[in-house]
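Regression report. Comparing outputs from two consecutive submissions.

Submission 1:
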Amino acid sequence: MEHVLSTWQLAATAVLVVASAGLSLWMQMGIARPLLVAAARTVVQLLLVGLVLKQLFANQSPWLTVLVMVAMLGAAGYETFSRQDRRFAGGTAVALASLPIAIASVIVTGFALATLRPEHWLSPQVAIPLLGIVLGNAMSSASVTLNTFTGMLVRERAAVEAQLALGATRYTALAPLQRSAARNGMIPIINQMAAAGVITLPGMMTGQILAGMPPFEAAKYQVFVLFLLAGAAALAVAATSYAAAWRATDARHRLRLDRLRST
């Protein structure tokens, strides 16, 4: 089964977004403008990436594929940094948000490619979609982890400084905060896995079924992807929590909240 969405069909779904913005205004939630901006970005970004991928698929250049993947990693890091309630100051701030996501995404995407064994590892039809789905999940998990950690750091400042004053190392004093932040970062993928097939049909599986793939085969691919996402999330939250703990203290194991800036 193959069905091409028309412009009118896409426009019809936009009514739901406009209605959601209207509901936000009525309830004074204050998210109408961000919702409409996000919807506009969705349309522009996805249509542009569709055009870019069309050219990539026709070109089949591994160098262009790598360039696009690097751009995706950089954009994910910047997006994570810009969405924080409190940001670390200094030139390493964006790197702090980017590196954990990049490390987790590259490792898990490489593992996926090694498992699937495509004829060409850097084929854009395989490498870019895999990185995209893994990267999006790692970015969300890292963003939640970092935001939770910095928020708890401000609230628990006195307790952390007391432990440091008693001789605890920075990682010992910050371990409870790291655990809580990492736990929050893992909750979305855990919920997604727990609900898959019982409460919801995941997006990839739904898309493959609509495209004509047998449901059982689509289910196997979805399990494969969910396990990849769980691995990427775990790596991202672990790396983010340790990177944040390192940045929030100095070599003399002192808490450095002066490095945090509220947005």
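Submission 2:
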Amino acid sequence: MGFGGGFAVVVVGAGARGHEIEEAIGLAGGRMLRRIAWEAMPAELMRQVAQPVLVADARGVGEDLLAAMLPRLEATAAALDLPVIVCLDVAEIDVVAAALLGVQAQLLCGPSVADLIGALVLARGSGSTPMLNAYAREGEGERLRRLNAEVARIAQALAELARREADAPAGGAADVEDRHSAFRAEPARPAPRADPGDAGAVRAIIRRRRMRDALFPGNLFEDPAWDMLLDLYAARLEGRRVSVSSLCIAAAVAPTTALRWIGKLTEAGLFVRKPDPADRRRAFMALSDAAAAKMHDYLAAANGSDPV
């Protein structure tokens, strides 16, 4: 059990992998109030009395249904101050990002049970749930005792998950690595210095950065911000639009990490999201004018050196 008897969770959707969501809720110390269908979600959530964490499973859900329901999910969650976690696969990146990127939602692409536990622990610490209000009324000593017990319990649960993965047949660990490597660009030969207006030279810098992955473990370079800035700057010079899923590929990290950084850079005013006027299920990412000017100045200043 979690603080105050556990935190409440409402699950939207949940198909073939719904059991993983239920397992994560239990291991994180929560309790599932109910599961509701995507089609019934708006009306059902407005009748919600408690303030639960929302876990929406978009995996395998049709694009048209997601495009219709995700904005309503976001609006309802914002109105009721509900933390949101969305589970998705690579196929759903663009439609989910078009509606939820930049809002207070955790987007998990191909999550493991451990990923879900971490997201639930973060989500329950946001918002003003009755459980948290009761927790705040406790004495300092009792809060610390409960916190230590909860940390120990979650650590034990994660250790058990790690043990199960280690005991699983060959392929389990590889699957985790595949989620990362599938979004890693191909290495290429070194390239010339970049002119601030030369898209080809900027692309060459990106290819050279990918050479590192052939020599070092890719997870040594998990911060994708610079790669995404370079990619969007090159696209701006080329007059090309970049979808969210394409930007995740350019980031060369796990898609959940890429989505988190796209959100951060959007909040920082470096990226802007531009809806596709022809298809509401899509959105494109671009550099803000201020970010593009900074990239131009950087490449101009670095032109006599070796920009990476």
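Expected: both submissions complete independently.
Actual: both completed, but the second showed a warning that disappeared on reload.
Relevant detail on submission 2: The first strand starts at residue 7 and ends at 13.
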